[in-house]
């Protein structure tokens, strides 16, 4: 696969904008990998060559990075990439059960995509949202306090094309390619949409206010 001239032109324009944000061009590799993922739905061979060319790197240097991070997909992800946290806390709170029932329901396993290209599944490590365990993510938006039944319903709704809203974040879920473009640093204007901190995350703050607690003075501070 080679990029069509108009696609190549658009990618180059976006890549130059991203590279211009960094003092050294090679620092733009991570966002550029997200950029090609937003075009192809995964980090394609052509995409990696494009990154190497734009940044003056060897393809081996690019591949060394793209194969290290699990957010870069080596084969096409689904339109909706569904992650289930199976790290310790989520696992004991039901994440393992969700994963077991969801994989059977959807018919694909870890890092696999349904034949219609709509859903891919991934076993995720901690999403840093343990206070909402068990947690799932779709295209990196949070779905908190899940159960096997709610997880299966969520995936069915996505496959049926229904509007699905994350528990926190924007009111409408974007596609995997759209999310990749945001991760490349190209704003979709929705960063401030919806609540980010909520419920149990703010419990410590509520308690501190109620008790009149404040942070201890820093040692050595005047
Ligand atoms: S263990 Fe699942 S979010 Fe931390």
Automatic annotation (TrEMBL):
Q: Which SUPFAM superfamilies match?
A: Thioredoxin-like
> What's the family?
Belongs to the complex I 24 kDa subunit family.
Entry cofactors: [2Fe-2S] cluster
InterPro entries given in the database record: NuoE-like, NuoE_dom, NuoE_N, Thioredoxin-like_sf
List keywords of the entry alphabetically.
2Fe-2S, Iron, Iron-sulfur, Metal-binding
The record describes how the cofactor is bound as: Binds 1 [2Fe-2S] cluster.
The UniProt annotation puts the region (Disordered) at 187-222
User: What superkingdom heads the lineage?
Assistant: Bacteria
Q: What is this protein called?
A: NADH-quinone oxidoreductase subunit E
Q: Where in this chain does the entry annotate a coiled-coil region?
A: none
What species is given as this protein's source?
A: Thermocatellispora tengchongensis
